[in-house]
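Researcher: Please translate sequence to structure tokens.
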Amino acid sequence: MIQFLVGVSISWREVFGELQQPDRRPLQPLYLNGGPWLSTFGHSITEFARVCWCITGHAPIGAYYRRFKINEPHGCTCGAALQSRQHILFRCHDRYSVHYPRFLGDIASFMKYNPTAFGFNRDPSGVG
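Model: Translation complete:
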């Protein structure tokens, strides 16, 4: 279980959502012997960070902005009322190349074909 400071506990299944291993077992965060995580993303810290933001929902998307009351648009550019992780990964045909990722390798492929998904835009002045 993951315990948050506000006293709300959730299981890793809720955080990792619908991701599965090839044998259909739910994908769990694994770190033993380095786990498959970083090597799956070619040891790219940038892609790995985007995957973490995607999996945890802590990404610059409408659902995150709404949850934390950030004054940014909540909808998707395709017209959907809420730009959520599920919307981006499984429903949005307008902005993203939808691959219906179910496995860790599928997420890697999705990130490759959608380089702006779940990423923060850099400030034009070079800050951040």
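Researcher: Any highlights?
Model: Residues 1-10 have pLDDT under 50 and may be disordered.
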